[in-house]
Amino acid sequence: MSEAIVRATHPTHWGRPDIAGDLIAVAVTPGAAPPRELRIRPELYERMLTQLTPDERAAVAGRRLLGPSPGVPVVVDPALPAFPGFEVVRARPEAPGRAHAAAA
Predict the structure, then answer these.
(1) Are 39 and 80 in contact (CB under 8 A)?
(2) Distances (CA, A) of 41 to 4, 12, 17, 82, 83
(3) CB atoms < 10 A from the CB of 88, how many?
(4) What is the four-CA torsion angle of 40, 51, 64, 33, rounded to 10 degrees?
(5) Which pLDDT value is given to residue 18?
(6) Could you tell me if 66 and 24 are in contact, meaning their C-beta atoms sit under 8 angstroms apart?
(7) Whole-number pLDDT of residue 15
């Protein structure tokens, strides 16, 4: 079988791990409420930092934000279960028909 046919029928899916990219992909799932924060176990957070470039690492560690502007706050939480090792905390939906507290 030619290499072109193999590539067409078997896409490469074992690329370099991208914890930050995977977390953002889960956090901004279409149709889901927007993410309010990402909670992540300390060992997964450290592993994620090692995968980032020095500039990305400094930005994430300094601001504790992940992803494109404005970013999603990252909270290191050792109390999370080992699997999957992270949690997306989403914005609460507004109750229909109720005035927003700031507008009242």
Answers:
(1) yes
(2) 41, 29, 17, 7, 9
(3) 20
(4) -60
(5) 92
(6) yes
(7) 74
Angle at 13 between CA 11 and CA 18, to 5 degrees: 145
Mean pLDDT over residues 14-34, rounded? 90
Give 65-104 as a DSSP string.
EESSTT-EEEEE-TTS-TTT-EEEEEPPPPPTTPPPTTT-
Q: Residue holding tokens 């990219």?
A: 21
Residue 86 has pLDDT above 60, yes or no: yes
Please state the separation of Cα 36 from the chain's center in Å: 11
Would you list the domain boundaries of the chain?
Answer: 34-91
Query: What pLDDT does residue 16 have?
Result: 78
